[in-house]
Amino acid sequence: MSDLIKVSKENDVAVITIDNPPVNALGPGVPEGIGAAIDEISRDPAVKAAVVIGAGRTFVAGADIKEFGKMTSGGPRRSLLPLLLQIEDSAKPVVMAIHGNAFGGGLELAMAGHYRVASPSAQVGQPEVNLGIIPGAAGTQRLPRLIGVAKAAEMCTGGKPVSAREAATLGLIDRLIEGDLLAGAVSFAREVAAKPAPKARERTEKLGTAEENAAIIAAARAAASKKQRGLKAPLAAIDAVEAATKSPFEEGCQVEAKLFTECLFSDQSKALIHVFFGEREVAKIPDVPKETPVLPVNRVAVVGSGTMGGGIAMVFANAGIPVLLKDVDEATLDAGMGKIRKNYASSVQRGRFTQAFVDERLNLITPVLNYNKFSEVDMVVEAVFEGMALKKTVFMDLDRACRRGAILASNTSTLNIDEIASATSRPEAVIGTHFFSPANVMRLLEIVRGKKSSKEVIATCMQLSKKLGKIGVLVGNCRAFVGNRMFGPYRREAQFLVEEGADVQAVDQALVEFGNAMGPLATGDLAGLDVGWRIRKEYRHLEKPGIRQPFAEDRLCEMGHYGQKTVRGWYCYDENRRPSPDPELATQVRKWSAEAGIPQRQISAEEIVDRCVYALVNEGARILEEGYALRAVDIDIIYINGYGFPAYRGGPMWHADTVGLQKVYARICEFHQQHGELWAPAPLLKRLAEAGKTFAEFDKEQVAAA
Ligand code: 3H9
Asked: Which of 677, 678, 706, 682 is nearest to 695 (CA)?
């Protein structure tokens, strides 16, 4: 028996324990060990039934995702199907005892058992689509047989887990066990030992009629095409579930296997697996080891009750952390609290939160007009207007008001953290926590490390981000940090393209078709064109003379067209903020371009995407080389979680690797020739392209060197 699987006996019930930390993934040795254990108990006359349970924190989190990369690069293919049939055909009933998660292959394993029992806190699901694949061990075949076609299609396409309680009502879990799961599972096994063992694959009663299924499958396809635009796996999962409704189990499994393989070898799956590991990799900071002590964050304060401050207060309250929300006068504070209440009310209306949950969260937010209670908090997040003088004044106040040991964070999106820290007597306590708007929705948190930020403060913010439901990515203190620094060239190119003759809609459309959540011009309208305009005016003296600068947004702002908030920007907006083309804009832009001597031409969607996306890549490569991002994957995670970059392309740096850095470099050189200095290729990109390497390889070398 392998070390990964242990067999023990509770009198006449065998207990098979899967012990493959951290999450009992079905990596090499695990399926073989379970198979051997099933063999062993089938030969043991003293055993009447078996329980399969996971050691540690979970049942089984699925196949070992690391193995997929090996498979697609020529490694051996391993199928779980024979093991699952062996379990299902066991003459002695097998009870799967689930705590933590039964995900992916873990749920497929559980469905091969004759019964499933679970702790009420457990979750089960088929999250494979999040990795760009579909269930590959008969999940698409057994699940509809156990819970019906509609719910199975929903679980296999959406990838969202369901709670054990819901699974019990669906018929996927046979009994919820409060208290000791193993004891409950063993006694359940004894109850069913003498009964004929039901096999999921032989059940048909929940499969529905052809007519019902056709409607369910058509609706699922329509929903997936709309909600999961551009993703191939959800549609493949529906094809596989459809096969379960039309073909015998074995044939359905063959359809599933073919679709699984197609998905596994796709660029989308490789990208999404990169994102899965990337989201975990960003938590690893070479000089801030896991053991670094973290500070308690049980009470916080937010300074500034505007859109960002209010959103940040909600983030803390949603995590159950009491917040003081400070502003300068009653009217501003009332307006800020009013906006928070409105946001919560709309969440209740949309069914996201219950009224009771919202009441509790609102109770955690205390509006204040002074710093009197700031001595009680463990952390402050400053979210006042973006201006150095004001920020420094606030930090001087915080330095006086807060106790030693409290973290002083700034939500600045562009300003120098070290300069802000210099206003205090404790720069080691100062750090940037750059939330993205709307703060209570967006997952990204850029954590900006100042020269003197202490390791404890960094470790605490990284850990806190997880508690807040965010993905924290540590970045260095350069102007605009990582995300916004890259966004500059990206939006610059979008404007240049319009100034050179592209339609506003064509620019946005090309990038939406590429997979972005929104086009760059519509994004500008949403954020407010005046924000960038004001920053540009402030920094104009830093611009090198003779270098082309975009002008269209400045002109729009001069006309008072700031975007959605003034109902006019790149688009016109109705009272529901629905955009329509601005009938005068094209003529105006052509006139401005003629005045600036910019020749007009037809521009393809391909050029639009290359110009905008490679502008991201080129700036990303500079940031990487300058050390403001720890790894290329950190940039990818920032772009996917903060800027709506399609996860199925793996982020801008992974996308460049997928296209091939030589190709990307050559195209950037072309743009350099055509458009001048702004397109000077980043030296790191040039080096990697010439060496035939990728950003992913660069990351590996960095990790090895650390
Ligand atoms: C599948 O099953 C296909 C099937 O149809 C079969 C086809 C043949 N493999 O997330 P955490 C690592 S596809 C390998 O930080 P948490 C993870 O990288 C799979 N490694 O913990 C991390 O490592 P490190 C379907 C895995 O408590 C460590 O475990 N299943 C796997 O926040 C801790 O993870 C899924 O998609 C894995 N399957 O969350 C589930 N899972 O410490 C994927 C985790 O070195 N997993 N690791 O950074 C999850 O959703 C979460 O990890 C889970 C725990 C909720 C389980």
From this structure: 682
Q: What is the spatial distance between Cα 481 and Cα 450, in angstroms, rounded to a whole number? A: 11
Pinpoint the alpha helices (H) of 365-454. Answer: 388-401, 417-421
Q: How far apart are CA 203 and CA 180, in angstroms?
A: 30
Q: Find the mean pLDDT for residues 300-327.
A: 97
- Distance from C-alpha of 627 to C-alpha of 288, rounded to nearest angstrom: 16
- What span, in angstroms and rounded, lies between the C-alpha atoms of 385 and 249? 62
Q: What is the pTM of this model?
A: 0.95
Residue 403: CB atoms within 10 A of its CB come to: 10
For residue 216 the two structure tokens come to 């369910």
H/E stretch holding 7 reads: strand 5-10
- Rounded CA-CA distance 167/115 in Å is 13
Length of the chain: 706
| Atom 11 in ligand 1: residue holding the nearest Cα | 280
pLDDT in tens, 519-545: 999 999 998 999 888 878 877 787 788
> Two tokens at 359?
């009441």
Q: How confident is the model at residue 78 (pLDDT cuts 50, 70, 90)?
A: confident
Which residue's CA is minimally distant from atom 51 of ligand 1? 61
CA of 68, closest atom in ligand 1: 13
How far away, in angstroms, is 107 Cα from ligand 1 center? 13
Whole-number Cα distances in Å, 646 to 208, 449, 580, 699: 36, 27, 25, 21
Q: Is the CB of 275 under 6 A from ligand 1?
A: no
DSSP-assigned states of every residue in 138-191: SHHHHHHHHH-HHHHHHHHHH---EEHHHHHHHTS-SEE--S-HHHHHHHHHHH
324: which strand partners? 301, 366
Contacts of 89 (CB under 8 A, 6+ apart): 199
CA distances to 211, 243, 475 from 704, in Å: 57, 46, 20
Catalytic positions, please? 108, 128
Supply the pLDDT for residue 1.
57
Taking the centre of ligand 1 as the mean of its atom positions, its distance from the CA of residue 65, in whole angstroms, is: 7
The answer, yes or no, to whether residue 577 has pLDDT greater than 80, is yes
603: confidence class by pLDDT, cuts 50, 70, 90: very high
CB count in 10 Å sphere of residue 298: 12
Tell the residue number behind the tokens 């996927």, with chain if given. Answer: 172
